[in-house]
Write a structure and sequence with these properties.
Length: 132
């Protein structure tokens, strides 16, 4: 769901700031601002409605998107929820004309490759400002 009212912001912050390798120690204020400036996706249990996953896309809704903060509750992993969540985010953006969706990962290249992501053909043309 992209309904912001369904998101459990405290749970998302705990997941990311305590259990992820990329956002460990992120403050609640930073997380709230990141969510406010993003297109957010929540994954929920069908039986209870409890949130079990989260991702967000930083996007202009027209040309570009940055997929980030993909997280599935540890107790729910291994059932394809991450794949379903990322697929939903990708499929939401395609009809908008978004032609480039980027992401960064240290450990899930194979998962994203199955969904159509590929390494950059020419990484030398990309640049970064800030921490690497």
């Amino acid at each position: 769901s992209t309904d912001p009212a369904r998101l459990d912001a405290a749970l998302i912050h705990r997941w990311l700031s305590e259990d992820s390798y990329w956002a460990r120690g992120r403050s609640r204020d930073t997380q709230d601002r990141a969510m406010a400036g993003s297109l957010n996706f929540g994954a929920y249990r069908a039986d209870s409605g409890a949130q079990v996953g989260y991702t967000r896309v930083v996007t202009d809704h027209a040309t570009f998107g940055w997929l980030c903060d993909v997280y599935i509750d540890r107790a729910e992993r291994g059932h394809g929820l991450g794949t379903a969540l990322v697929t939903a985010a990708r499929d939401h953006l395609v009809p908008l004309g978004v032609r480039r969706i980027m992401l960064a990962t240290s450990d899930a290249h194979g998962v994203y490759a199955k969904l159509g992501w590929a390494p950059l053909d020419n990484p030398a043309k990309w640049m970064i400002l800030g921490a690497q």
